[in-house]
Amino acid sequence: VAASFRPSLTASSAAKDAMTGCNKKILLKLKLSVAEIEKLTQEIITTTTEVLDSVCAVQGDRTFENTIAPMAKLATDMTPLITSCDFPMHVSTDEALRQASGEADEALRKFQVDCSMRIDVYEAVKVYEEQRKQRGEKLGAEAERLVERMLRDFRRDGLALPEDKRNQVKELKKQLSEKEVLFQKNLNEDKTRHAFAVEELEGMSEDYIASLEDAEDGKKWVTLKYPDILPLMQKAKREETRMVMDKLKATQCEAVNTPLLEDALNIRCQLASLLGYEDHAGYVLEERMAKRTGAAREMLTELVAKLAPFADKEVLRLKEVKDAERKEMGQDSDGKINSWDFQYYHTLLKEREYSVDEEKVKEYFPLEVVKKGLLEAYQTILSLEFTQTEPHEPWHEDVEMWEVKDAPTGAFMGYFYLDLHPREGKYNHCAVFGLVAGCDMAPSASDSKFGEVERVCPVAAMVANFTKPIKEKPSLLKHGEVVTFFHEFGHVMHQICTKAHFCEFSGTRTERDFVEAPSQMLENWCFEEEPLTKMSGHYLNKGEPLSKELRDNMIRSKNLNSGLLNLRQVFFGSFDLAIHTSGPKVDTKEVWGSLREKITRIANSSGGNGSASFGHIMGGYDCGYYGYLWSEVFSADMFTIFKASGNLYSPEVGARYRSCILEPGGTVDGDVMVRNFLGRELDKNAFLVSNGLQ
Fold first, then answer.
1. Residue 147's CATH number
2. Domain of 246?
3. Any idea which residues carry the catalytic annotation?
4. Which of 38, 186, 196, 411 would disulfide-bridge 406, Cβ 3.0–4.6 Å?
5. Tens-digit pLDDT profile for residues 13-31
6. What is the C-alpha R_g of the chain?
7. How many domains are contained in the chain?
8. CB burial readout 519-528, b (16+ within 10 A) else e
9. Coil, helix or strand at residue 93
């Protein structure tokens, strides 16, 4: 219940698919006005309260049907309605709507805290479980897992505490939610930018410069949005230009978000103490694959030891490249790789030693060609069929909608949206939003066979910021953006392919340190010969795919500076754990600066507090960033199964992957899913091999 609230809507049974049970009706309202968002928010609160009150008012024996099922049904019914209220803050073109959506999100988060702290609901579930065991009643595996999770979450929310401490927990959670919402709002609404004269953008392509907004005196605005800042840091020849943007990025939202973050750390520390945990990291990791803070920290420490020798050599090589370039330009070198240098000299090294020029490479990756190849790959591997359809209540003209069917049977499975280009006020990274959770409409205590009961169809949205087309030129993706597209679309498939009975376990609702593994595994297709050929086609030269030489060089360059790049991820994970295990008062700027230089081997040249724009730690990934590397260990080994088959597009291996990894959602622990897919125990060395380190 605390995980997702959403009035009971019963869709027409005429729209139900005979094989999957999925109802094709989309239970989303994505064109609400400000007043309608406010009204629906209140309706969600009222309906949820009524259902929980009715559960608590049950007289006589408690059963699954009168205690657990109504709350599971409530979560199913409320999901699309909550999405209707809180999704617009990420994608709407109307500032007033984004504001109203953000306020709705904040109100629903506060209400969620209220519900999670209802002692009467906790007592109702606890009494039910006691009576069930006394009666000797058996539940289906998924229903039993649900009840266990509910009781665990009640305990983690402080319901087993005395009333005075429960009230403290409730108040602290409300304060924490307010700070997290405001932190993200500040990032979304940030308008930091700098005007450069065209000559200051030396090294940038004509297309890039043309894509920038005009400023006064013939200058061009460069923002901190990824389509602006990332290419500049990679290609801008003038060090002063890169330095300006690096310093702006290093201090983004620092004044407003640093106090919010440090207040949140204090609150999290207080909450952990009240709930009986040593620190916030111990609280969070209890329900992750790692289980213990020590396990996550050990993994990161081991990686530093293995990666450092490679990284140190890579830094020396980058310095050589920098010194040589500065000499060519008749300028002195400071002999350091500064924070504004790494991306530039990494790119230059890639061009000089591997003949991979990203500006030339992206000419082979028009968005529509990449999208066609990507969709074909996923359809073939997972035995699916995608058909573009008229979008249901689109929020922008760029938005596409696709219907998904199971290819062998033609059975309907769900829908996904694609919203791929940047605009003012939009979420400024790449992410997949699970708009509607695929699950049974009427929760049952038994494990029914998939398709036997009517299901809510899953709906997901991929939100990205790929460069928009300009004039007669299409949107062109850098290879890194192709990788991102492949990764994020993997999350879409995780949402769509779910066979979970309960909303609680649908799609990506698995352990946070496992959830990235399925998508990370699929990134590997972007470094293989056949997929690269199928996803490329020069936008001018009659769709000619990548040449063998360029393709091979791209594959060879995959692990360029892999020591440094992986240490960057280790730094983010280590910083996340450090600030959540250091007590109530943390100087985040000091920790950020010291750990960055110590771990990454790159100077923290611009100073600033980078954690003020580190959205993960205030957006639900607190104590979870280590999970990107943790899950990559699993993903690397899973990919070996596809490689060993001799066919990266193997429907047979894909069917096994879909069955073992994507369909279970959170109904099975991540390590069990991986073992089922591999047919053996995990080989951790696959990660080192994948990164060219062994």
1. 1.20.1050.40
2. 192-251
3. 488
4. 411
5. 446 777 777 889 998 999 9
6. 25
7. 2
8. bbbbbbbbbb
9. coil
